[in-house]
Amino acid sequence: MKIRIIYLFILIGGIVLAFAAKKTKASQVCWCWSEDQGMVAAPIVHRESKEYLSYGSYGVEPDWNDPQHILPLNYEQAQGKRIFYQQCVWCHADSTPAGPSNRTNVTPTPALMNDGATLNKMDDKAIVRIIATGGGGVGRSAMMPPYGETLSKDDIHNLLAYIRVIATPTYPGLAGSGSSAPVDQKK
Q: How far is Cα 165 from Cα 77, in angstroms, rounded to an integer?
């Protein structure tokens, strides 16, 4: 019963205070503006950028060794790029769009995916097998997980197409395969 009386006094006191606050001068000030007025803000300053190509640009890839050398990508290669940046970039690149990769923390150090000197010696089936079964499935480092259950066959094929187009030196099988050839955009 005492709790109900205390609760009732607090409730009545709150109502009295709210009523008294409406009578004060401060409650008469309007903190709103009409619809025809806009907010006042400082102008946005756009700084000149030295980027030539933004990450995620569809259909092109800057050469990892020379950003002014642009590699045009066909649809399959562009899909492979998407998969590479989702699954592989953290261990198979020196840097990523999100910052440094984890490559130097992995033992043995994984191959760079643009290392044509190493990857050009391997046929497509060997690379597909490494991707699908992981490093342990082909007698290499078990640190590379198998992607055969994660990626579809088309995804793996697209990833291989992307790996081939970014290879330096250029993969010899690219010229006659109908794939996009590198374009040098230096002026």
A: 8
Ranges assigned E (strand) in 3-157: 60-62, 69-72, 95-96, 99-100
How far is it, in rounded angstroms, from Cα 147 to Cα 92? 15
Q: Which CATH architecture has domain 60-184?
A: Orthogonal Bundle (1.10)
Whether 157 shows a pLDDT value over 90: the answer reads yes
Q: Could you state, in order of their start, the residue ranges of all structural domains in the chain?
A: 60-184
Angle between helices 153-166 and 124-133 (to 10 degrees): 120
Residue in this structure with the two tokens 């806009």, named with its chain if needed: 38
**36-41: long-range pairs with CB below 8 Å, 24+:** none
The helix (H) or strand (E) run that includes residue 82 is helix 75-83
Output b/e per residue, 90-125; b: 16+ Cβ within 10 A: bbbbeebeeeebebeeeeeebbbbbbbeebbeeeee
Nearest to 132, CA basis, from 119, 118, 120, 149: 149
Q: Is pLDDT of 177 > 50? A: no
pLDDT digits (tens, 9 = 90+) for 99-130: 667 888 888 888 888 888 888 999 999 999 99
Say what the pTM is. Answer: 0.59
